[in-house]
Amino acid sequence: MPPRKKAVKQTDTPRTDTKLFVLDTNVLLHDPTSLYRFEEHDICLPMFVLEELDNKKKGMTEVARNARQVSRFLDEIVNDAPRNIEEGIALHSDAHQNSTGRLFLQTSFVKHELPQNLELGKADNAILGVIIGLQQQQPERAVILVSKDINMRIKARALGLEAQDYFNDKVLEDTDLLYTGALELPANFWETHGKELKSWQQDGHTFYQIHGPLCGALFLNQFVFKEDDTPFHAIVLEQNDTSALLRTLTDYTNSKHNVWGIVARNREQNFVLNLLLDPEIDFVTLLGQAGTGKTLLTLAAGLMQTLEAKLYSEIIITRVTVPVGEDIGFLPGTEEEKMTPWMGALDDNLDVLNKTDDEGGDWGRAATRDLIRSRIKIKSLNFMRGRTFLNKYIIIDESQNLTPKQMKTLITRAGPGTKVVCMGNIAQIDTPYLTEGSSGLTYVVDRFKGWAHGGHITLLRGERSRLADHAGEVL
Fold first, then answer.
1. What is the pTM of this model?
2. 10 pLDDT above the threshold of 80
3. Torsion sign, CA atoms 290, 296, 299, 304
4. What CATH number is associated with residue 158?
């Protein structure tokens, strides 16, 4: 996306100070609302794009749904079109106040000779031919291809054309700037924030009312820590520009506070368990590479609150079924049986959680395992629309592979008394056209930060094995 400019009033002739963006099909299929995202600039859809949209509209996949939505948007726009469609159709409407540009549809065959080494009849090459033709017709204007396809952009640049990725869906340009959920306090923190300090104890926790310059930069439910002779770990309960209320944490690194036999092995895992076991937190996001304990901690906290505290009636686990290798074809059985091969991580973690029950012997462990499995339901994402979950503990695994729209569909299923935990590793995205910056997981981490009933932690240290840790570093 170009830098934001002040919206301009629609005129009868195309303005040369605005740009003309030619959209590739994959941009529309990725984000149907992209038609309205270019503000005062004009957009053009070549005929091959419309034909590709027509070919993609059948079926129940996310791509097919998006293709149909684009067609509906185009129908609304074209219905209000003037008789002379070549002058462009105004995109401005009451629902889309910022879209002051125009939509141009390819109405005539563009006679331009492409280089001989480009195959004729191929949609990508035909679109490139349209861009070259438009550039020759309007030499004083910037004509830019917008595509999610890297190879298409490379081909365009090889032909001397300007090409861009579609940036509007990106939450952050640099994922290193993504909110981590924890902040290390400076060495002079107590000197600068302890002048009007008030502290008191309540329900086994110590509360600190602090005043100082750092307070304005804090977020609700953010963890703050200071590692020195007397380590200090706390969570932010209230904050404004000048003051903040901090509360010390429950120490889950101590076996006295074990969660279903599991204890936190590092600082971030302790933060995670404090979020997962807080009944006031309805939404938790966990980021971290393989082996940081995301699934194990989430399951342990879920079992504790479902089977012992009876806060939730059952645990529901779902994940995106994107294979790492080749697809293994259709799977037999019920919805739960079809999802079982994708849930190997669940079984691995249940084995760990079940080993903590040594008192009952083998029979006791078998009974515990059956009880646990009876309270855990495995659901497919495909059947989530229209559902409402009451008093459930919902785990969305591998959520880095979800688009922001799919993430919204899932999270809005939560009814009263339901807790949703999203976890994943944004460095392992398998969905085409999704990047670290545009993943649904990045999207919700950024949008939910600072909400009173949501929390996030980025796990840093792997606790799987020395082999896994070393492989993560050197491979």
1. 0.75
2. no
3. negative
4. 3.40.50.1010
